[in-house]
Amino acid sequence: MPIASPWRSAARTDAGKVRARNEDAFLDCPQQGLWVVADGMGGHQSGDIASQLIVASLAELPVQDDFDERLKGVRQCLHWLNRRLGQELTVTAGRHDSIMGSTVVVLLVEGQRAACIWAGDSRCYLWRGQRLYQLSRDHSLQQLLIDEQQMSVEQAKAHPSAHALTRAIGAAEQLTLDVLELEVYQGDAFLLCSDGLYNGLSSDALGNALSLIAPHIALERLFDSALRGSARDNLTAVVIRK
């Protein structure tokens, strides 16, 4: 018999109010302690194929007992996908100048250990002790301008290419993944989401939603709030609670 997971989660995606196609994808596997959000690169060839491929490939990873082995497996899978998206699929698309890519953010949990793995600007947040922490750091030009040019958030946001990604799966020959490991506690809640969701919501709105005990109710609050706004991009979120 499958063992009940100590984690409860809920996931949802929506095309938003402007885009005809949804290029986001998610994975919601509490039994495996694995959750993913992938955001296909908008305006490029087949961003939805890239995000779906990432989610499907991670879903097929074997569930091992050793956390470090599982983490290694996730990283190897993403590096393999980076090569595959960079080579084969671009050729089959029939256009050599096209990029088929996607952001990815993964949360892997086993017992008291958790790891967040990401490339791009999809985010992982932690709600702990009535405080919201952004665990991932965006791989975007906006973040680069803040870090390297000492620009304010407002100045960086005003840059015409602020949303350009500095990393993504399939975007460059060499992929560098960021990994953050942490210990998890009772009452922790995590949010994985695409930029379409967090761009339309304040930190307070994110925190208020994550303070709700049931993941599906938190998710409902997030989408209700985001869809009251302009929702110009696809919206995807996974809420996970111990």
Describe the structure.
The chain has 242 residues and is an alpha+beta fold. It is 32% helix and 26% strand. The protein has a single domain, classed as 4-Layer Sandwich (Phosphatase 2c, domain 1), CATH 3.60.40. It has a five-stranded antiparallel beta sheet with strand order 1-10-9-6-7. A five-stranded antiparallel beta sheet has the order 2-3-4-5-8, with helices on one face. A hairpin with a 4-residue loop joins strand 2 and strand 3. The protein is globular.
**What is the terminal separation in angstroms?**
21 Å
- Structural class by secondary-structure content: alpha+beta
CATH topology label: Phosphatase 2c, domain 1
| CATH level-4 homologous superfamily | PPM-type phosphatase domain
Summarize the structure.
With 242 residues, the chain is α+β, with helices and mostly antiparallel strands. Helices cover 32% and strands 26% of the residues.
Secondary-structure map with pairings?
Elements: E1 8-14, E2 24-29, E3 34-40, H1 47-59, H2 67-86, H3 88-92, E4 102-110, E5 113-119, E6 123-128, E7 131-134, H4 141-148, H5 153-158, E8 178-183, E9 189-193, H6 195-198, H7 203-210, H8 215-228, E10 235-241
Antiparallel strand pairs: 1-10, 2-3, 3-4, 4-5, 5-8, 6-7, 6-9, 9-10
Helix pairs in contact: 1-2, 7-8
